[in-house]
Design a protein that fits this description.
There is one protein chain. The protein has about 120 residues and is α+β, with helices and mostly antiparallel strands. The chain folds into two domains: about 60 residues, no CATH class; about 60 residues, no CATH class. It contains three helices and three strands. Helix content is about 30%, strand content about 10%.
Length: about 120
Amino acid sequence: MLWQLKKLSTNEALGEPQVLPENWGPIFGLSGVKDKLGDLAWVGLPDQGWFETTQASSDENHSAADIEWAKAVSLLRSSDWAVLPDVPMTSNKKALWLEYRKVLREIKSQSGFPSDIQWPTSPV
């Protein structure tokens, strides 16, 4: 499922639809965080919220390959923190994150792409 960030007062799309990380609850120390994404005032972003969408973009038609690649890019972005040099984690855990990100970057080279993708499991 893709999510679209919107300006609440005008319903204007802010950026492209993307996949949101599954680990938002633990990151923020919250349970049920997806229930709170419709209004982001609680994180200092008044007049913005995330909404589920089935469309890859409001103004373009995207192929299945475009949509699946956008998911991979979104997952990469949501895991950028894991490869920062000052993130405290064991070398084994860092290696898992590096391998996860490598598989995401190479998702297009899978033989079943875009209809049959073997998504990597997040090390979280």
